[in-house]
Each structure stands twice: as structure tokens, then as C-alpha cells.
């Protein structure tokens, strides 16, 4: 099982790089219009979901025990990302709550996946930590939905940056595991 998981180290690395790039773009360009931010966010969620589903369908041949969690995570991200593209004029409050919901769902699924992976790999806590970060971010958005404009851009950018860094570290840990096997 460890070998199967480690073969797809690059999917974690790719997801992390996408998140870091998105986070940097959001923080460097805080004055961009909300419409552009919404499109970036939609694109990020769809891309993240696609990478997750790609790793699922290529890894499912190995009968990974956590395939259902990966399916839910990928579909949740894609569903919300496509929803953002379909209704770009939705109120900022709805978008904030959708992002919060996505972050909480993703966080719960990542913690569950980390618990399932602990028997197969070391340092699975990185995935659990990124899940906890996702949940905390989602809760903050539910508690303070009035975050708007630049504050929301910065909050999303910081979250994406930290989330991405954790996934990049996990990707490299899995790569080392693959080399050791």
C-alpha cells in the first residue's frame, strides 16, 4: 500500500504548487476585482478537484482503501468550482460561505484520509495538518462572513499558500518513500 501511495507523490506536489501560485497571486494583487478573484477561485477548485480525481482513477487500480474519500474531495471541489463559474454574479456572502463549506469538507476528508494512511506511511500528519488548517479556515469564514474586498483576498491567499506548502512537503515525503521502497 505504501508503494502505491508513494507512486502518486507528484499529485500532492502539483496540488500544492497550484495552491501556492494561487495564494501568491491573491496576495500580490489584492486590488484585483472580485470578479477576477471569483474566476481564479473557481479555476483553482476545478483544477484541484481534477488532480484529485486523476490520482484517484489512476491509483484505484491498486484498490486503495481511501478511494471513496478522494472521490468525495475531488467532486466537492469541482462541484463548488463549477458553481462559481455558472453563477459569477452571486453575492460575496454566498461565495464566502461556499468557500468555507468547501474548506470544511476538504479538511474533514483530509483528516480521515490521514487517519487511514497512518498505517502505510510516515508523516501522514502533514495531510491531517492541512485538513485541520482547512477546517479552521472554513470556520473563520462562517464566523466572519463580512470579510470583504482586500481582507477576503488576503485571507484566501494566506490559506492557499499555507495549504499548498503543506501539500508540497507531503509530496516530497511521499517521493522519498517511493525511492526507499
How does the SSE layout of this entry go?
Elements: H1 2-7, H2 9-28, H3 34-59, H4 67-86, H5 92-117, H6 125-143, H7 149-180
Q: Average pLDDT value?
A: 82
Estimate nothing, just give the exact number of structural domains: 1
C-alpha Rg (nearest Å): 16 Å
Largest sheet: none
The level of helicity is over 70%
Indicate the overall shape.
globular
**Strand percent estimate:** under 5%
Task: Provide an overview of this structure.
With 181 residues, the chain is mainly alpha-helical. It has one domain. The chain has 7 helices and no strands. The chain is globular, with a radius of gyration of 16 Å. The termini are close together.
In short:
With 181 residues, this protein is mainly alpha-helical. Helix content is 82%, strand content 0%.
